[in-house]
Every structure is written in C-alpha cells, then in structure tokens.
Amino acid sequence: MKVTSEIAIILVLTLLCLSCGSSTKVQERILSFYTCKYDIDCVENAFCYWRAPEGGKCRCKENFVLVQNKTSFECLAVATGIDSPCIENIQCEMSLGNLAECNASSNKCQCIDVAHLGRDDKCHRTIALGGICETNDNCLLGDESYGFCYVGKCICNVKYHISSDGKRCIPSSFLQQSCESAESCAVTAFSDCYGGICKCIEGYIEAEDFESCLKAASAVGDNCTQTIQCSEYIKGSFCDNNKCTCKTGYHGYGNECTVDAKLGEACKEDKECILTANLENSVRCTLGVCTCVVGLSSQEPYGCVINSAVLKQYYPSLIMGLILALFLINPH
To answer: Which parts of the chain register pLDDT below 50?
Structure first.
C-alpha cells in the first residue's frame, strides 16, 4: 500500500509538471519518494537530494523531466525547441507549451495541427482573422505575417484591411492614393486601382470628402445625397431634397439641364422648347422662336393642340376609323 500511495503522489506531481510547460527554466523534479544515500542509488539523469529530516530523495536533474514507462520512472531530457529529439510529448510541452507534441514517426517535437510556432518560440493556437484570440501570436496570417489581437479578436493592424480570401492583411489605399492592385483599394466600396491610383468605378463618383464612392445620377429626378452625384453626368443640375434637380429657369432634357423657352419665346434649339416630355413631338424651335409643329396651334395653358381647321378636314376619316375599329372588336 505504501508503494501504491507513493506512485499516486508521483503521478500527481507529474500532472503538475504538465501544467507548467510555459516556464522558461525547468526546475528539478522529484523522481520518487524512495530514499537514497548516493546518486548511484537513482536512475540515469537523476541525483540524490538530501534534506533533513526526510533524508535523501531522488530527483531529476535540471532540464530533465519525470516520465513513467511500463515498469518504472525515468528522467528524459526536456526539448530545447521545435524539431528537438523526443520520446514523450511531455518533453516537448515543457519548452514549447501544451500545444506541442512528439511526432511518433520522426521522434521530433512539433506543434499540433491546429497550432504554430510563435515569435516567442512557443506553440500557439492558430486563429483566423475575426476569430477569438488571447495574444497577437494567435493571429498568424497566410503570408506568415501576424495580425493584431484586439479586444479578444484577430484583426488587421491600422492602415491594413482583410484580403478577399480572408487570410491576409492588405495595406489600405484610399481614394486618390497609390495602389498596386484592386485589393489595395477594397477598403473603399465601388473603387478599383486605375493606373496605380485608387478611383471610383464607372457609374460612381467620389464624394466631396473623398472618403466614399457615390452612385452617379443619369437623369433629372434620380436620388442623391450630394450635388456631385448630379452634376457629374447631368450638366447644370444640383441635389435638392435628395433628388437631382435643375435650377429655376431650366428643365431636364437628356443628360443636361437646358434653359426654359416657352411657346413664342426666343430659342436656339428644340430642347429649350420641350419643357415636359409630352411636348417632345409637338413643339420646335423654328426661326429662333418656340412654335407648335405644323398642324398644331398654341392654346394656353394646354400647350399645342390640334388645329381646329385640320380637325374638321380629317373628321369624317376619324369617324369611319372608329366605326371600323368597333366592328373588328365586336363583329356580331
């Protein structure tokens, strides 16, 4: 029973040794509670440690660790680092931490599959960007550089952003700054690298503060938040109440704001006379004056209407056309 209790105590001490794998200096560890008088009474790599009143006890030498084999205990050398020769995992864990192991095939120390060798020569769990971390050494990136553990989460350092594959941190290039690839500009949505400079993609325009790309308007009435969205493609327009609008005295025609010219007023082009879409086919700029097209006459406030004389001329034909249409719709 005495031997059994002694072995149990030794096992407890061994477990305690496992928990101190991160210490930089391996302390001498008790080999057994059997008494000794001389070093020769102990196993290899152990010595007889004398302390009153207990007497002599065998301990592992410094930089050796207690390991139980099939029949007894032995003192094995603590690994000096990665790829050091080993027999048991504990040899590696003592110097590399509890995420180290002894490779059964090569008998060399390595980090377990989910870990890597950190900059402090310890094995650290590998955490992807966005994952929960304890230290900067957790945040190993795909290019072997490191991210930053901030408030328990792996992130990119300041002036860097995550790559499209989520494995690297890319130097951030903002609008009008130099760039090497589209990924450099990805920090700003709807931007790309053109000629080594970050710019907004087609259909988008730089905001007034150059911090974002805004969708450019293509017609009067489109949504907007800044005038630059309107004026980029619609000449003479501005943003008013979140809508692209022409200033007073102008109206939208195509992709520009053109001066208003009412019927009878001076004009230079047809578009000046077409104040609204329904006038597209009814008014023209003729001899420098906004005029109704042939067959129509001016009638305020309705714009151009069919000339009454023309209407009488074509009235019989219109009646016959209506009768024929009704017959075709309902032949019975």
So the answer is: 1-29, 301-302, 309-315, 318
Kindly report the backbone phi and psi dihedral angles of residue 84, in degrees, each rounded to the nearest multiple of 5, phi listed first.
-70, 150
In angstroms, the Cα distances linking 136 to 143, 154, 165, 293 are 15, 8, 20, 78
- Main-chain dihedrals φ then ψ at residue 93, nearest 5 degrees: -65, -30
Long-range residue pairs from 165-174, CB within 8 A, at least 24 positions apart, any chain: 166/128, 166/129, 166/130, 167/128, 167/129, 167/141, 167/142, 167/143, 168/141, 168/142, 168/143, 169/129, 169/141, 169/145, 173/198, 174/198, 174/210, 174/211
pLDDT score recorded for residue 325: 54
Q: Please check whether residue 234 is in contact with residue 220, taking contact to mean a CB–CB distance below 8 angstroms.
A: yes
In the numeric block, the tokens 């496992």 are attached to 18
As a dihedral over the C-alpha atoms of residue 283, residue 287, residue 288, residue 291, rounded to 10 degrees, the angle is -20
What does R_g of the chain's alpha carbons equal in angstroms? 43
Cβ count within 10 A of residue 75: 23
Q: What is the per-residue burial (b if ≥16 Cβ within 10 Å, else e) of 259-268?
A: bbbebeeebe
Tokens in use for 26? 């391996």
Given the structure tokens 């000339």, which residue do they identify? 307
Give the pTM. Answer: 0.57
The CB-side HSE value for 44 (13 A sphere, CA atoms) comes to 2
